[in-house]
Amino acid sequence: MNTLSIRNQVDIPLNDSPTPGTFYSFSGLEAAHEHILIKLGPASEHSPLVRIHSECLTGDVFNSQRCDCGPQLSESISRMQEEGGYLIYLRQEGRGIGLYAKLDAYRLQDGGMDTFEANSHLNFPEDGRDFSMAARMLKALGVQHCRLITNNPDKVQALKDNGIIVDSTIPTGVFLTRHNSHYLQAKKDKKHHLIDLIK
Questions:
Q1: What is the pTM of this model?
Q2: Which residues does the annotation mark as catalytic?
Q3: What EC number(s) does the entry state (predicted)?
Q4: I need a labelling partner for 72 at 20 to 30 A (CA). Which of 61, 89, 142, 171 fits?
C-alpha cells in the first residue's frame, strides 16, 4: 500500500464559522473516488478530533430521514468548528456500492429487508467500505493520535490496524426517526454500532 502525499490544500470560507475550512486533496489514492480531508478550526496537534464520514447524497444533501448520516455530519462539523478537528469525507456512497445500487437497495428495504440484507441480495458486500484510506490521509498530515467521533467499531479498528492511535471514541447523537428505526436497529444488532436506542 503506497503512501499518500498532499496534492493541494485550499482554504474555503464556510457558513457560521469564524475560520475557513482547509480542504486537502491527495496523490497516491488507488480508488477512482476523490476522497477529501477538511481541517476545521484550530485542531489539536496531539490528539485532534476526527470524523470519518462516508458520502451519503440522500442524507448529507437532501436531509433524508431513512438514515442518520446528515445529522451525524452536521453534528461533527458544529463540534469541530468550536474545538477544531479533521473531517474525512470518503466517496463511498451506499456503504461502497454506489448511488444507483443504494437506491435499488432502498426498494428492497421497502419490501422488508434491512440495509445489510438488501446489499447482499444485490450481490454486494454487506459493507464494502474501506476505512484504511482515512488512516493514510491522517498520516499524510502527520497525525498519529486522534479522538474519533463515531459509533462504528469498524472505523476504530481500521485506524488502529493502520497505525493511528485512537485515544478515545466520542459517540454521535442518536438521531432516531420513525423512518430510520429499522436501519439503526440493524446497525446496532448486526455491526455492533454503539447506539443507545430506546425501545
A1: 0.91
A2: 127, 129
A3: 3.5.4.25
A4: 142
